[in-house]
């Protein structure tokens, strides 16, 4: 039985009323399965980032060189991030117009962008001198600032992501 959807009036409704969007939204299993995978992937992203940030802050794993820890965690971080991005995009497509008016969704996207900029600055500026401080227990202020910002921003992403689930359909 086909569902009726009105003619889309914007790009978000076009995504939502697409065959992919309606398939996910109308399926009994697709949305909850995607959401479960998304949460597991995000927990992996945050967990691996937190391991690295705690090391940069000198609060954990000080016996590990920063470069070794980065080599060990980064593949997991990026793999999980790609999975979270794919599942997040599929979740978005199923309710695009609702997400685009939800302030928690907009904050989540903004905080992720800021976390990405923080990571880029760290890797292309602060990390360039890693050979000077790699195995030291106390790291430079720039590394500590990047780690602190990272933790704050990713906690904000998680908070907003959780809030989205409780506020879908409230904002129009």
UniProtKB/TrEMBL annotation:
Keyword Transmembrane: yes
Keyword Ribonucleoprotein: no
Pfam families: DUF6644
UniProt xrefs under InterPro entries: DUF6644
Signal peptide coordinates: none
DUF6644 domain span: 35-166
UniProt KW keywords: Membrane, Transmembrane, Transmembrane helix
TM spans (from-to): 29-52, 73-93, 105-124, 145-171
Protein's name according to its UniProt entry: DUF6644 domain-containing protein
Organism per entry: Aurantiacibacter rhizosphaerae
């Amino acid at each position: 039985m086909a569902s009726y959807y009105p003619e889309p009036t914007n790009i978000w409704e076009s995504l939502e009323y697409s065959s992919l969007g309606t398939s996910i939204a109308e399926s009994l299993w697709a949305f909850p399965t995607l959401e479960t995978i998304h949460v597991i992937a995000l927990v992996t992203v945050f967990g691996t980032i937190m391991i690295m940030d705690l090391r940069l802050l000198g609060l954990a794993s000080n016996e590990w060189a920063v470069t070794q820890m980065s080599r060990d965690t980064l593949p997991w971080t990026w793999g999980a991030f790609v999975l979270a991005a794919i599942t997040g995009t599929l979740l978005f497509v199923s309710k695009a117009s609702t997400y685009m008016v939800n302030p928690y969704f907009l904050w989540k996207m903004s905080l992720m962008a800021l976390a990405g900029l923080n990571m880029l600055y760290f890797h292309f500026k602060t990390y360039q001198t890693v050979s000077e401080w790699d195995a030291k227990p106390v790291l430079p202020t720039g590394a500590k600032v990047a780690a602190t910002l990272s933790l704050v921003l990713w906690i904000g992403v998680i908070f907003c992501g959780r809030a989205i689930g409780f506020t879908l359909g409230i904002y129009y």
